[in-house]
Amino acid sequence: MTTRAKIRHYLIGAACAVGALVAPTAHAAGVLRICADPDNLPFSKAEGPERGLYVELANMVARRMGDTVQYVWWLTFNEKRALRNTLLQDKCDAYFALPADPDYKAPGVQRTHAFLDMSYAIVAPAGDKINSLADLRGKRVAVLSGSAPHILLASQKGYATSSFTLNEDAMNALAKGEVDAAILWGPSAGYENLTRFHSRWRVTPVSGEGMSGRMAVAVRQGNDALAADINQALVDLRPDIMALADKYGFPRGKPVQLASVSTGSRSLHGSGGANGSADMLVQSRVIRTGFIKTADTTQPADASGAATAATGGDAAAGREFFNNTCAHCHSTDGASPIRARDLRHLHSRYKDQWREVAATTIENGRPDAGMPTWKGILSQKDIDDILSFLATIQPK
């Protein structure tokens, strides 16, 4: 029976499969079954003229091994769930691709050696020489909300940021002149720069804690022979992998070193975090395209350790910080049209406890709502300034 004749099942729902190819229950000689996302360029695509780096590489690996390829298409908004429902259910033999970092826990799977480095990247006009973080001072910089670059810039003075959920929205803002530069997820930014903007900007990779990672192929635990075969194919295909990276616009070259920012233990590839932590659905199209670290949102709330909202903060400084860092989700001056995010109602909701509730939320985050923790990132003065600003927008 041909691949085209195989029965496809379609499941509907957030972070669920849009199609899982019914496949043999074991790895058959001559057939390599690959798990991949059906709609995640520049990495993978089920249909169309461009299939993505992972799909093209999987085809090369299979040919190198003397196999034909069958695909199991499964959306990877939640990568851990995708693995459970495909690779660990023996519906496929290999998953392209998984973070090589051993801190990214994926029970039941083993990884090949890393085959590709990925990182955030600075997107800026070709004439701008940006060799360090300081070169972005005074510029309007687009960042992905809650990402390591967002937290880094928010923790330092003198940087004006605009936060976005999606890479493409940030790129659009750059094209409209609403920002001067951006620090975005490199593969996605490079691909968009190449395909949508005809290489209008220079896309330069960055390095630093939480800014980069390496990708590997995952197979089921104990499938040592298959892992070894794929490893050898990846070694043999090294020049082809670099050519694919260039084809899809992935940023390459010497990275710009950014100051390290502590991001805790949370590693994201797919919206499920490391160590079984709660899903984060913010940046849904971005998170599942590579190895991304963001703030550790798994810390339990500790009311006894929460910052008590001190009086005497600088409300003007707090407003400036808030609008540069928090307005993407909460709107300018906290006046969101979405009532749950409208911070003008804190006092009416929590009465005299609103300051303590706000301080606890800022420190510990809300992983269920996509808000990262800022504990250890913001100083006590920063938090006091924000709370003082929030006090000015509560109804009298």
Question: Explain this structure to me?
Answer:
The longest helix has 13 residues, at 53-65. The protein is globular and about 75 Å long. The chain is 30% helix and 19% strand. Among the domains are: 3-116 and 214-247, 3-Layer(aba) Sandwich (D-Maltodextrin-Binding Protein, domain 2), CATH 3.40.190; 303-392, Cytochrome c-like domain (Cytochrome Bc1 Complex, Chain D, domain 2). Helix 9 crosses helix 13 (380-392). Strand 4 and strand 5 (44-45) form a beta hairpin. Strands 3, 6, 7, 8, 9, 10, 11, 12, 13, 14 and 15 form an 11-stranded mixed sheet that branches. A two-stranded antiparallel sheet has the order 1-2. The protein has a two-stranded antiparallel sheet with strand order 4-5. The protein is built from 13 helices and 17 strands. By secondary structure, it is an alpha/beta fold.
**In terms of structural class, how would the helical and strand content be classed?**
alpha/beta
Largest sheet: 11 strands, mixed
CATH fold label of the domain at 3-116 and 214-247? D-Maltodextrin-Binding Protein, domain 2
Proper CATH architecture of the domain at 3-116 and 214-247: 3-Layer(aba) Sandwich
Low-pLDDT residue spans: 1-26, 261-310
Give the overall silhouette: globular
How far the N terminus sits from the C terminus, by CA atoms, comes to 73 Å
Q: Bin the strand percentage.
A: 15-25%
Cα Rg: 22 Å
How would you name the CATH homologous superfamily of the domain at 3-116 and 214-247? Periplasmic binding protein-like II
Give, in order, the helices and strands: EEEEEHEHEEEEHEHEHEEHHEEHEHHHHH
Mean pLDDT: 79
Strand tally is 17
Helix share bin: 25-40%
